[in-house]
Design goal:
The protein has 111 residues and is mainly β. Helix content is 0%, strand content 56%. The strands form 2 sheets. Strands 2, 4, 5, 6, 9, 10 and 11 form a 7-stranded mixed beta sheet that branches.
């Protein structure tokens, strides 16, 4: 059973940065996709980014180059570097792989 644990969320001012981490256990994800989603209060969960196999990242259009996904196969971790954060980025961020989800990490951006 795959397990995913997110960390790195917090409170940041507009224009600031955060790096989220997703620790993956129960499998080696070398050839599987690992994605990030987010869900703001009262909103549907939306896709943010995904990295597939050997370093093929894909991003949602709204990020406009502000976010970057990467992974460390040796540590079984996936990261989401978020720069120039804005209040509209406030949400719970989740990582997912092999149809499993983590518990999420809260990101709050103050104006």
């Amino acid at each position: 059973q795959v397990q995913l644990v997110e960390s790195g969320g917090g409170l940041v001012q507009a224009g600031g940065s955060l790096r989220l981490s997703c620790a993956v256990s129960g499998t080696k994800f070398g050839h599987y996709s690992v994605g990030w989603y987010r869900q703001a209060p009262g909103q549907q969960r939306e896709w943010v980014a995904v990295i597939v196999g050997a370093d093929r990242p894909t991003y949602a259009e709204f990020m406009k180059g502000r976010f970057s996904i990467s992974k460390d196969d040796a540590k079984n971790q996936v990261y989401l570097q978020m720069n120039d954060l804005q209040p509209e980025d406030t949400a719970v961020y989740y990582c997912t792989s092999l149809n499993q989800w983590g518990q999420g990490t809260q990101v709050t951006v103050s104006s």
